[in-house]
Inverse folding.
């Protein structure tokens, strides 16, 4: 995460039981000449690379620092989760900083890797494609009656530890003036400092209908649609790329919000 460490201001992690909350970050409103946000890549590596190319073309005439914000869910559903994580763990394009936030699918992959006893539940959730992208034939393992310990050993041998550490390091929220970037949304009416990680990664209702009920605009993913959705003080940009082929990019240039 060294590509943005020099500029962001981090709130101190809060203990939740025995677990630390993921970091919540803050930038000043005028820190960047242009901001590009996208969400829910879901293993679609080709679309991710193409979007970065289009972002670079769009930003070529913009003077000043530029930021790419990723809103989570890099794994599952699509064909190449491993390549997506490898791409995002490397440096951003020249002239850009890139901030990668955590989504619920990313957190679930970490949980599986660290505690593989829940492998069957995770496969029912969405994980088969992710394992395939690492060369793991999970169907064969299950048909051969491989035990949890054997499956865990295969997963740990095939998925690089550095990919898991990358996901474990991801913050969960970015605030930039009155704009908040997060994977799923926020619990309406609750101060941002008191939001739970689980809400920020998983919430749908009542956030989708009620909005944040705070003096902010929330940019989020998590809830897919065929086009971006505009609700009360929120913009949803998950356009289900693994099904539609469309990876939506929201842009902020000065006071103007648009779509690339």
């Amino acid at each position: 995460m060294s590509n943005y460490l020099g500029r962001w201001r981090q709130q101190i992690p809060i203990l939740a039981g025995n677990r630390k909350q993921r970091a919540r970050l803050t930038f000043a409103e005028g820190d960047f000449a242009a901001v590009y946000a996208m969400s829910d890549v879901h293993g679609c590596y080709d679309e991710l690379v193409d979007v970065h190319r289009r972002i670079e073309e769009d930003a070529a005439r913009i003077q000043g620092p530029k930021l790419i914000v990723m809103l989570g869910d890099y794994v599952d559903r699509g064909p190449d989760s491993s390549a997506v994580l490898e791409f995002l763990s490397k440096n951003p394009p020249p002239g850009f900083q890139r901030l990668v936030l955590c989504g619920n699918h990313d957190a679930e992959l970490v949980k599986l890797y660290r505690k593989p006893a829940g492998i069957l539940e995770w496969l029912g959730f969405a994980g088969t494609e992710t394992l395939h992208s690492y060369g793991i034939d999970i169907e064969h393992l299950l048909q051969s009656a491989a035990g949890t310990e054997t499956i865990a050993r295969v997963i740990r041998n095939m998925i690089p530890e550095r990919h898991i550490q990358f996901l474990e390091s991801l913050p969960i929220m970015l605030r930039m003036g009155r704009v908040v970037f997060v994977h799923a949304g926020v619990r309406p009416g609750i101060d941002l400092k008191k939001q739970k990680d689980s809400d920020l990664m998983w919430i749908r209702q009542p956030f989708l209908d009620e909005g944040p009920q705070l003096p902010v605009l929330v940019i989020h993913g998590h809830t897919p649609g065929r086009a971006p959705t505009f609700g009360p003080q929120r913009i949803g940009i998950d356009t289900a790329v693994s099904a539609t082929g469309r990876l939506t990019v929201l842009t902020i240039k000065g006071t103007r919000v648009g779509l690339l």
The first strand starts at residue 9 and ends at 10. Confidence is low (pLDDT under 50) at residues 1-18. The two ends are 25 Å apart (CA to CA).
